[in-house]
Each structure stands twice: as C-alpha cells, then as structure tokens.
Design a protein that fits this description.
By secondary structure, the chain is α/β, with parallel strands linked by helices. Helix content is 38%, strand content 13%. The chain has helices spanning 2-14, 28-35, 90-100, 118-127, 144-153, 173-181, 193-198, 200-205, 227-237, 248-251, 264-273, 296-306, 310-324, and strands at residues 38-39, 59-60, 64-68, 104-108, 132-136, 155-161, 186-190, 210-212, 241-245, 278-280. The chain has an eight-stranded parallel sheet with strand order 3-4-5-6-7-8-9-10. The chain has a two-stranded antiparallel sheet with strand order 1-2.
Length: 330
C-alpha cells in the first residue's frame, strides 16, 4: 500500500488530470465559508431529493461525494440489466452539490449501462476533471489500451454490482482485480452482507484494494452481529478494504421516520475501526428508492451521528477520498 500512496503522490505532484482548479462561481456565502475551511450549502429544490433545506452541518473545504450516477435516455441500456431510471443530468447533480456544500465527486457507472461507460466519461468532463473522478464497469474483454485511456480520463476503479442483474460475475473478480491493481486502481463491490460473508476467502485474495458499497449492505436489524459486518471489519483491519458510509435507506428497519438510527452502530463501528479507510457518499439519484426520495441534507447530517468527531469527519470527507481517488491534495 505504501507503493500505491507514493505513486499517487507522484501523480498529484505532476499535476495529472488537473485543470484550472475549483471554479470561482460558487455563491458568495459558500466562498466566505470555504475560506474559513467550511462550506455551507445553499437551500433549494433538487431533482430526486426531498426537502429543500441545506444541511445543518457545513461541509469541510473539498468535501467529496464518493458515489453518484447520471442517466440519459440517449444512451441505450444494456438488455441484460433491469433498472431503467429517468434522466438525471450533471446539471441536476450540481444542484445537489450546491445544496450540500460538496466540491468534489465520484461518478459510478450504474448497472443500467452494462460496460458502456461513455455517458459517465462525458459527465466527468462536464463536471470538471480536476474535481471529478469515476469508477467504471468492465468485463474481461477490456483491453489494456482501454484501461490506460480511462485512467488518463480520470477513472480510478472498477465496480462489480452483484446485487442487481448486470454484466459482471463473481468469476471475473480475481483476474480483473489483478489487472487494475497494477494501475493503482481499486475494485468496488456491491454485495449483500450474506454474499460478503460467503465469499470472504475470495475477497481476501484480491490483488487490488476493495471498496464496499453502502456499508456492506448489512441488514440493520442484525447490525454488528451479522457475519457480513464481521467479514468487512476483518478486511478493514487487515488493510484490504475501504467502506462507503452511504445508502442508509437501503437496509434500515426504522427508515427516515426513525432518522435511520439503526444504522448508527454499523457505520460508527467501521469509522472507529478504520477511520482512514471510510468515505462518504450520497448515492444520488437514489434509483432504488421510488417514488419517495430521501432528504439528502438529512442524510449528510446523519454523518455527524455516525462520526461524532469533527476531525474524523474531515478525514472521511476530504483526506481519504483524495488518497483513494487520486485527487490533488489540498
């Protein structure tokens, strides 16, 4: 892992993928807060998000949303997939970022498009390569030249969605993990907690770092007692894995009425065990949650329950994403 950190530091020092820095078009209130090290969000409606208020908690400067998607009907879905969400554009996402006060983000190609990464590569250019990274979906037919091209564009990982029907399979994990590890990339995995527990030995063998989606999809009525949670903790503590503190609505049993309080032991457990290996994400536009969408400001504020210490939250929102996704260091 030290070699990976050195490689990323060298890349950042060389200015790979940097353009002209953060835009100067933020609202004046956000600029003033940013100068003080914190950025207050701007209230207003956002597509695919309920509520209109900004979070009560200001975001630290260069806070990063490490998982969101875009959708566009001009790009055909893969016939092997099932989810067909409505259009959600980069401009729609920028409205969310203004509301939350986040300044960097990570696009993730969703299952809908199979291995067609064109839409998200285009969106990364629109959102700005100096403040956007991407996780792509590939299969074993991908060429080394294609991987190199994606790296130059800003891709820093590949995703396996083994929950929704898609185009990646368990047997592709080891060969693809080995190929992307040589580029300093990670392998992002969306599995249910039971699948993680069943495949812990395989996951332990992967060459690249692992990033678990949505807290490892632990059913929150079982929480820290679930064997999938224990498997993720073991991989975290062996420096094999990272965890996205996201998707509070996916496996909660109390829901927004209970302010997703049953997620706190799991998220806090990860953040306590490995604060240097957790990142935060919105999962916008919340395609698994029709028709009522969650309040993204409330989800952002939930992070203060998951991680009460402000310095640890800054690490999760700013420092860890800079390492994992090869952003320029502030």
């Amino acid at each position: 892992m030290n070699e990976l950190f050195s490689r990323r530091a060298a890349l950042c020092g060389a200015g790979v993928l940097m353009a002209a820095g953060l835009p100067a078009s933020r609202p004046a209130s956000a600029q003033a807060a940013g100068a003080a090290g914190m950025v207050r969000g701007v209230a207003g409606p956002v597509k695919f998000s309920s509520g209109t208020e900004a979070p009560r908690t200001p975001a630290p400067h260069l806070a990063t949303d490490c998982h969101h998607h875009v959708y566009d009907a001009r790009f055909p879905p893969d016939p092997r997939t099932q989810l067909r969400p409505p259009d959600a554009s980069p401009a729609d996402y920028q409205a969310l970022a203004r509301r939350l006060g986040t300044q960097r983000s990570v696009l993730v190609t969703p299952s809908t498009y199979g291995t067609d990464n064109r839409l998200h590569l285009q969106a990364m250019r629109e959102l700005g390569p100096e403040r956007t990274r991407m996780v792509a979906v590939v299969d074993t037919s991908v060429t080394d030249a294609q991987l190199r091209d994606m790296h130059e564009a800003g891709v820093r990982g590949i995703r396996f969605n083994l929950v929704q029907a898609g185009v990646t399979t368990l047997d592709m994990l080891e060969p693809l993990s080995a190929r992307v590890q040589a580029m300093g990339w990670h392998t992002q995995i969306h599995m249910l907690a039971g699948q993680i527990a069943e495949n812990e030995a395989l996951l332990s063998r992967l060459a690249s770092p692992i990033v678990f989606d949505h807290m490892g999809r632990v059913p929150m009525d079982k929480g820290v007692e679930h064997p999938g949670y224990a498997a993720v903790r073991r991989l975290l503590e062996r420096n094999k894995a990272w965890v996205k503190l996201s998707g509070a609505y996916m496996d909660t049993k109390v829901g927004p009425a209970g302010r997703w309080s049953d997620t706190i032991p799991v998220a806090r457990g990860y953040a306590t065990a490995a604060p240097e290996r957790c990142v935060w994400a919105s999962d916008w536009p919340h395609v698994t949650e029709p028709p009522e969408k969650p309040d993204d400001a409330a989800l952002f504020d939930l992070l203060t329950e998951w991680v009460p210490d402000e310095a640890a939250r800054k690490r999760i929102l700013v420092d860890n994403p800079a390492i994992l996704y090869d952003f320029p260091r502030a």
